[in-house]
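YM 10:42: ATP-dependent DNA helicase Hel308 sequence, as discussed on the call
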Amino acid sequence: MRVRDLPLSAALVSHYESNGIEELYPPQAAAVEAGVAAGGRVVAAIPTASGKTFIAELAMLTADGPALYIVPLRALAREKYETFDQLPGVSVGISTGDFDADEAELGDHDIVVATSEKVDSAIRNGAPWVERLACVVVDEVHLLGAPGRGPTLEVTLSTLQRRVPDLQLVALSATVDNPEAIADWLDAELVESTWRPVSLRTGVYADETVEFDDDTDLDVVVPPTGPNDDEATEATVALVEDAVETGGQCLAFVRSRREAEALADRLADEELSPAPALGDELDELGGTATGRQLSECARTGVGFHHAGLRSAHRVAVENAFRDRRLAVICATPTLAAGVNVPARRVVIRDQKRYTGDAMEWIPVLDVHQMCGRAGRPHLDPFGEAVLVGDADTKAELFDRYVTADAEAVDSQFADPEALRTHVLSVVASGFADSLDGVADVFSATYYAHQHPDVDLAELVAEVVSELETMELLDVTGETLSATTLGAQTSRQYVSPTTGARIVSGIRTIEEMADEHVTARTALEVVCDTPDMHDTYLGNRERALMYQYARSHAAEFTTAMHDADPFEEWLTAVKTARILHEWTEGSDIEELVERYRIGPGDVESRVERAEWLLGAADALCAALDADVPEFREVRALLSP
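YM 10:58: structure's back
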């Protein structure tokens, strides 16, 4: 099937053909046969690099009205926006900023790219463009099974289908164990394929040999290791070197930020692909110790990528790799979650990661996502993915990852915090005003599809009682309504638990002596909420943070002896202290050095604090209270 045979304008056909897209890949042709260009609903469960983006574009370009493209990550939103913006005659908008921003102008675009949280927020706030949608594409739909993010995506899709009954839905996914369940839920045709434009072989390294799943072997020369050398790291270095020396690029995945930086430093010693100009460009993005380390590694053709990097550095690394200016990226698994950075070889050194309690195996789906990055279309004749093991683990790695199917996608909607959030949203948005009404709304969720025997009204009843105790819902007989606090909490897109904590903090502030209410007070309130990212609190810091908390105890809304659990509150105090010092002029480099926090972590805490302080100010209005510190600190956080 050829592009010029599709119902596209001459300008679009010319655009695709000029980019080398003339013939459809088999999965793309199957999607056309399933009706994707004729308003049909389709779930495409196909490997990375098999043409999912073109399937999405085809649906959106042939839809009879505006289209929405939902992504899980802002980095992926930026990438897709830039891709769609190149389509001739197509107006593209993007929505990934502050949750409470006015998005009315988005309705003027042909395509809107947004995170699921932004779409959920738009629905809650009655954005008129939502009801004019003709087509919605969901990227990475397997993230329905992710805690936190999954329930939001699930409710967003359920609500969109109710608001726009004739909506075309196209869901894109990696290969998972139960794509038919997702297709059945969405009343969509399933297009399932293992076809890739570049063949992929996956194997396990042990004893200087990689054994692949196609019954081929690869000998790898690993120099003798000394007593202080890590054998897995040296094997990884040898595998990376081998790929680069033959003209390929490589992704090396490790378990943590520190390991990513350490591996990059080790590879930099090899001078794989000198790129001094790239190092200079990275230097110009701003100086922190981490940034300088990145630029020095980049001069040798090696980069690293993790959430602790500033966003500008992460984007620069991704772009440099795509432009083939970097030979290697050492990364944590988050890089595999959608951003387009294909390589000839992927090396997965670590298959376990620390989850807070113990070292646990990485999910099969995550490993398959990493492996799927191997093979650059139009650049490589093949792709290779190698898991680094040893003689003792080789067989287990094969069974666990190489020959195993990815996990099934199961709904996480029954999580208590997710239920509280979405019950409040449904009532506050006017979609339901009774237990049975809420249950009816939730009957369209993936959770209800997977668990048809669950009594949804009974599930909702307990949550309604909790929300009533939080003063976020009123219950009068069988009628449910959001209180003023509940409506504002939902509108500000904070969780009910966060809303209740902020309200408690505001009421405590009203009872405090004026001289004790400071910027620290405002920051402690918003940092001690589940919507603020956790900040690592090391053993050596505990005593210092304890002393800091004692010395400023009069300024905090939580008494030290009442903090429960105390460790979580002390962590919130650390975050508040970092943000306070930021408002007083400390730069990122000082904070990174002083608190062992990544520059990207500082950026993300500042951003979330701005959002939460804005929500706190809005909740003050709902309480007819005035805490100017919320507004004042928010203004100081902005550069």
